[in-house]
Amino acid sequence: MTGVSDVMDGVIFADGHGNLALLNPAAAQLSGLGAVATLGRPLEQLRGRSELIDAVIDDQMVVESRGAACRVVEIHHSERDLLYIKLTSRSVRDHQGRPGGVMSVLEDVTANYKTDQLRNQYLSIVAHELRTPLTGIKTFSTMLAKGRLGPLEARQQEVVESIREQSVRLEHQIDKLVNLGFLETQEYGRDLQTFDVVEMVRTAVTPLLQPAREKALELSLDLPEQAVVVQADRSDLRRALQGLLENAVKFTPQGGRVRVFATIDGLEVAIGVEDSGIGIEPRYHRRIFEKFFQIEDPLTRHHGGAGLGLFVAQGIIGAHSSRIEVASALGRGAKFAFRLRIKGAESRSPTDS
User: Fold this and answer.
1) What is the pLDDT of residues 232-286, one digit of tens each?
2) Given 3-state DSSP classes, what are the helix, strand and coil percentages for the chain, each rounded to the nearest 5?
3) In whole angstroms, what separates CA 109 from the centre of its chain?
4) Following DSSP, what letter does each residue of 236-257 receive, concatenated?
5) Which of 10, 26, 154, 297 is 20 to 30 A from 162, alpha carbon to alpha carbon?
6) Which class for 14: exposed (0-12), middle (13-18), buried (19 or more C-beta within 10 A)?
7) Mean pLDDT value across residues 326-331
């Protein structure tokens, strides 16, 4: 049987007292620590020995409150220059279900990371080159639409309005490409606040009311009457929910239905969007969260978008130790939902409602 020392990825385990209990050869090599000299010592005493160990210690604090943490760390390696290490940390429990420590896995993703960097830089350059002529198109079409260059006939006004709307849409997509590198490196879920998630859902829906009206969609809210308090990054969560809602509005045909909901389920609240749209084949349920992935042929597809909405939403929800659940079939609509722990729910008695 393969032992931990044979694993290609680095593995670091700190026990329930914060002492270093396991450091396999891969982790020792990446961190620059000697396993024999450091085993049994409090991990906090090793702070400052390497950038990677500092990141492991910091993430262990995050794990204590959320149960998991994941990010990419840039380190300066003595033999291999810059390395990019995917650091994933999770709490470990003993046979009685009590916290037994934190396990951190170190995966060298340098090759993939550098490839993505080059691609993102290229896309950013292309996007900036596109933005210059687009600014002129948007400016002059707006001037025409407002009559600043003379009166227009009804048909001319309609065409100019269409040009202006399409230029705004294109500008939105270009902005996504320009900000792609930021989207991938952003550490989501860091600005924790205590707030009413029901109120957050209501505000998240507001920008989508007009697009829903334009398609004659029945947009409904199914929310608890009482406040449901959570501790999370409010801005990021609203952004994730809006991404799910934008998809629902985009892929639901004229006259369809979209429901935004928040449902209390024990110690958690389930938040999500359900629609009567075109649906998604089960074989694509995992892939739709990949960056740039589009089910439709990009050369013939009818719906807009850069394929980044669900990618960003998944990153945000993952940073909150949750995941987006998908229930959908082709032609039968789709349901996207995620769960958050209700703050203070643990202290309720079983008879509380």
Assistant:
1) 999 889 989 998 999 999 999 999 999 999 999 889 999 999 999 999 999 999 8
2) 45, 25, 30
3) 19
4) HHHHHHHHHHHHHHHTSPTT-E
5) 297
6) buried
7) 92
- SS3 (DSSP) at 292: coil
- In the chain, what is the greatest distance between 2 CA atoms, to the nearest angstrom? 83
Residue with tokens 């029945």: 218
Helix (H, G, I), strand (E, B) or coil at 154: helix
Could you give the CA distance from residue 341 to residue 331 in angstroms, rounded to a whole number? 33
State both tokens at 326.
């998908």
Evaluate whether 233 touches 189 at the Cβ level (below 8 Å): yes
The pTM score is 0.58
Q: What is the DSSP string of 184-205?
A: HH--TT-S-EEEEHHHHHHHHH
- Residue whose pair of structure tokens reads 């694509």 in the numeric block: 284
Strands (E), the chain: 10-15, 20-23, 68-77, 81-93, 99-108, 193-196, 218-222, 229-232, 257-265, 268-275, 325-328, 334-341
Among 315, 325, 316, which Cα is nearest to 280's?
325
